[in-house]
Each structure stands twice: as structure tokens, then as C-alpha cells.
Amino acid sequence: MTPTAPSTQTRPAAERILDTATLEKAQWHWFDTPEDVPWEDWEALPGGSAYLDRRYLSAMAGHGKVQCRLGMIKATDGPWLGGILMQAVKSESRSPADHMDVSMGVRIATAIMQPGGRPFRFRTLVAGQGLGSGEHTFRWLDGIPAAQQVRWTERAFDQCAAHWKIRVWMAKDFGPELDATLAPHWSRRWARASFDPVMEVPLDPTWTSSDQWQEALRTKARTKVRSILARSADLQVERVTDHAELDRLGPDLIALYEQVYGRASIVMGGLEARDFGRLAQKLEEDFMLVTYRDGDRLIGFHCGLHHADSGTIEAYYVGFEAEVNKERALYQRMLFEFIEWGISLRARRVVMGRTALEIKSTLGAFPVPLSTFVHIQLPLAMPFLRWMIRQAPPHPFKPRRAWRAEWCERWQSEGYRID
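Predicted structure:
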């Protein structure tokens, strides 16, 4: 069925007031420090998230591995029409061929770019969030046409690339609905790529305890949860909120984080020792950091963000000792803690990121595919990039069926794909 155009009486405000010529003449205004951002206007735009929150962006100001610019676009003598998050990110490609289902040609090309397995380092211009996954790219006034959104985004890339002198660009991440809306409008200079999906656990906001979540799971999944809790029962689990204590723990937390993310194929950005204290200071109760100790020895941590308006928990970063993790199911315990935190806040979903897909599905996480658009400003780079994308599809996996049948129907009705 072909949708009909809305009438002028029901058309959103931006379409009703602003014609195409006015939209085309709108100009970007760039803010490189939190003090310069007109926060009230930024927060009035639709599309907020934890990573687009004033408090998070203020906490991450001055970060060494990720530089942020906020752009806001304004009509001539008119209102603010939208905003975008642009980042200059230090990226490192280590051994992607070891982590993806790729052809022999891609393995050879990777070996040429990374002789001796040495990391390949480069800067990336990101529209969206380099330190997280999901739709945290832009905020538009209701009614801005999709074609105009893409044109403005491309203009933002041109301006920020000139500002930072960066040749590798990424516009990320777009879920199925947003991707379908925007995809026809990107210019030919972009290549569309799909990496591993982000894993999300939906929650019923009426739940008041994790027992209700477990009752919604199949018997096998509930048994799995009991095993996870039993294997980690003798660990000391503590939420740390004191800023000074988090600053003191920072180097130890980073060392644990490196034990996990040091094995990743591609790393964008990364944490710094002072991040935890700054996030706790700015976000207060909407930031959670939990430590795990075996006796007096720190063996792991996880941290997350809460965004009340969207009812979302964002699993941020984790770190742990690999051998302890195998013995104590430490990572699965962290996933459980994220879910329990979400239930305590009456959240609607927990976004768990793009790693350990099958493990997360055993606790009820569903895959949500995301698309990214990539451009490289180098001669012959784009044909090579398009070839690499074709030869390196997302890693296939079969999600476990964790929910009881009636809950599968519920989550399917809310848009999750049930295989």
C-alpha cells in the first residue's frame, strides 16, 4: 500500500512552515565546548538518548581519544531545525580477518595493510557515537524530509572533515526503519555496510523484580540464570558512586577493560582512567559502575547509562580477568546485573552492544540489525572498500530461544525479530 501525503492541516510543523528553499538555506552552527552549546534548544529537539544527553557529552569533554562537536542547524531568521553529534575518533584495526567470516582475498589484503600483524591506526570522522552502538546520530524537528536529513548530514561531514582533516568517515548506526527511510537518499560516494547486530533485551516496565523477568523465560533459560548466580555467589559485588574512589580505581579498571577490548578486531576510541569519575559526577544515579572482587582482589567491573525519557539502559563498558570469567560466569553475571538494574528503574529495554551475541540471546536478547554508511577520501579507496564489504558479511549466529511463547508473541508485536 502506498502511503498518502499528510494534509496541510495534519502536516508536522516543519513542513507546514518551512518550504524547500528555506530548508536548503539553513546553516550549521558548530560548538566545540559544552559551555558554548545552547542546551535548552538542543534538549527541546526530538530524539534524545543517553549518548546525546547534555550530562554525558559534558562528562566526555576533553577526552583524549574521542573529540566531540555538536552541530545545530538553523533556518535564516528562523528556529533551530536539528542537531548532530560529530566525533573525531582514534581508531585501530588489529586483526579483523580473525574475527569475521571473510574470504582469502580479504585475509591477504589485511596482511598487506598490517604487515607482521601490527595494528593499523587511523582517525575516523563519526556521525553518531564511537563509544557505543545505536541510533545516537542526530535530532531533527518533526517533519524534516528524509532527503533533507541526509543532505544536511553530508554537509556536516564536509564541514567537519575540513575542520579536523580526516579522510575516513562513518555515519552510524541506523536501525531497519530509519535505514529504509534514509538509504535511498545517500549520494554515490557512500558505501553501505552492515556489521554485527546490536543485542537488546526488552523489559516490561510493570515488572518490579527480576523474579518476574525470570518467570517470563523458558525453563532452560531460568536454569541458566540460576547457574550464573550460583557460580558467582561468593564474589563481593559493589556499586561504587564516590567520584574520588572512581578516580583512584580508574587505572585498575582500565587494565581490566584492556583484557577484554584488547582482543577486539577494531577499536574505536576507548576509555580513559578519569572517565568513570566524571560520568558519575555528571550523570549521578543515571550512571552505574559495579565492581567484582574475589576476596580483596579486583577481578572485574561493568558500567552502564540510564536514559529515563526513552526507558533505556545502555550497557557501556566491562572488564574482567579471562580465567576468572570462565570459572565464575562473570560476564553473564554482569548481563544479569544490567537487566536487574533496568527492572529496578522500570526501563523498557537494555541495549547490550554487539559482542557475544549467542551468550546474550540466552538471557533474552534479540538482534537488531544496524547499518552504517562509510566513505574514504583517497584515490581508489572506495572500490576497494566496497569489495571488502561484500567479502566480509556479518558473522552468522542463531539466537537461542529464551522467552516463553506468549512473551515471544509480545516482543514480536513490539517489532523484535523472532527467528
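Summary: The two ends are 26 Å apart (CA to CA).
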